[in-house]
Amino acid sequence: MNGVFDLGGTDGLGPVAVVEDEPIFRAEWEKPMFTMFSACFRAGFFGVDSFRHGIEKMDPATYLKAPYYEHWLFTIENASIAAGAVDPEELDRRTEYYLKNPDAPLPEHEQSQELIDFVNAVVPAGAPAARETDKVARFSVGDVVRVIDVSPYGHTRRARYVRGKVGTVIAHHGSFIYPDTAGNGLGENPEHVYTLKFTAEELWGAEAADPNGTVCFDVWDPYLELITEGA
After folding, report:
1. How far apart are CA 138 and CA 206, in angstroms?
2. Which one of 63, 110, 117, 142 has the minimum C-beta count within 10 Å?
3. Mean pLDDT within 142-147
């Protein structure tokens, strides 16, 4: 899926402003977003890839202007409605109520020890995406490969700036959930994952590139076609 969220290699956006001592949360409302992600993930409303795809469906102008956790809110809201856990009309009523009564107390709810234990386990370590597969890895370290230049419909991790580019396989990591199916509701379908090394010149052209620069990028097996086998 192509869109404003895939900005790698895009010109004209200016430098990345790095904020020293940036706070984890910029506002109080962002904290519940972090909690809601864990709860909805645990409930099966989405996986990591479908969560990302939900963000990709935002209006482009809204996406670019919205803070980070508003992206989360968008996909959490829509996934919860799709799962039948949230009534959109009730959500609209409650939103209108709190807009008119910003100091009103939030509803009370019971804490779930199961959810707390899940968050305490997953947040520090992450949720493993490695999966077993009977598929044979088609590529080996040292192979020269090209990232197939297509613009797939729906979610993908095949960034535009590497499509059609030639690199060298420098690592094979095993098999992992395939985002191009998992993100589009088509199952985990694990595929082998490799790290490719590209020269900066291959990615950006001789005039713009650092002649000694390289970029490493992780790719799934179906993204690739062989150019030459390694020694």
Report:
1. 31
2. 110
3. 98
What's the DSSP call for residue 229?
-
Q: Given strand 214-220, what is the order of strands in its sheet?
A: 214-220, 191-199, 166-176, 144-147, 224-228
- In 52-182 the beta strands, taken as DSSP E runs, fall at 144-147, 166-176
How far from the centroid of its chain's Cα atoms is residue 42's Cα? 17
* Residue 79, C-beta contacts closer than 8 angstroms, at least 6 positions apart: 40, 45, 46, 50, 51, 54
Q: Which of 189, 210, 190, 188 is nearest to 199 (CA)?
A: 210
Q: Is residue 167 within 8 Å of residue 216, measured between CB atoms? A: no
Listed in sequence order, the residues at least 6 apart from 131 whose beta carbon sits closer than 8 Å to its beta carbon are 175, 176, 177, 188, 190
Token pair recorded at residue 191: 């595929």
The stretch 183-188 carries a mean pLDDT of 96
Summarised one tens digit per residue, pLDDT across range 78-134 is 999 999 999 999 999 999 999 999 999 988 877 788 888 888 887 787 788 999 999
Backbone angles phi, psi at 225, to 5 degrees: -135, 145
- Is 179 in contact with 51 (CB distance < 8 Å)? no
CA distances from 133 to 71, 130, 171, 177, 193 (A): 33, 10, 18, 10, 12
Q: Are 219 and 158 in contact (CB under 8 A)?
A: yes
State which H helix or E strand residue 30 sits in: helix 30-43
Q: Are 218 and 183 in contact (CB under 8 A)?
A: no
